[in-house]
Amino acid sequence: MYGVYGKCFDPTGALHGIPTYPWKLAPDGLATRRQLRTLGLRPGGQPVAAQVMRINRRTGGPRVAYLYRLDLALPVRPMTSRKWGALALAMHARRTCPACQITYSYCLSTRHGICGLCLATEEQRTAG
């Protein structure tokens, strides 16, 4: 294999340390974390079995995704009531403006950290 695939094809692991395959050409029985999650599985502490690699055309650097074995994957742990409660509190904090204490139906921008009304008021105060 020549060109980009030649840099990404290393099934023995001699060049990169672990078996490496070109993007979308991994063998069956291996999956990324996202693919495991869609199947209702998690890696479960197993080591990385292989990786898929793609060379970025703009920067020339590699993009890597680690692969895990499907037969060693464990089922996802179910959400408990405490976890649901913690998640609800975290989302409530992201929707509440710290300046005016109004809770919105959407998450506030992390760029400014306050709602649009408080931001406009602050900009008018600093401009005048």
Characterise this structure:
This protein is α+β, with helices and mostly antiparallel strands. Helices cover 30% and strands 18% of the residues. It has a 4-stranded mixed sheet with strand order 1-4-5-2. A hairpin with a 6-residue loop joins β4 (50-55) and β5. The relative contact order is 0.12. The mean pLDDT is 91.
Return Rg in Å. 23 Å
Major beta sheet summary: 4 strands, mixed
The protein's oligomeric status is single chain
Average predicted confidence as pLDDT: 91
> Kindly, what is the distance between the CA atoms of the first and last residues, rounded to a whole number of angstroms?
66 Å
- Give the neighbour order of strands across the main sheet: 1-4-5-2
Order of helices and strands: HEEHEEEEHH
| Uncertain regions spanning at least 5 consecutive residues | none
Structural class: alpha+beta
How many distinct helices?
A: 4
Shape: elongated
Beta-strand percentage range: 15-25%
What share of the residues lie within helices? 25-40%
Count the E strands. 6
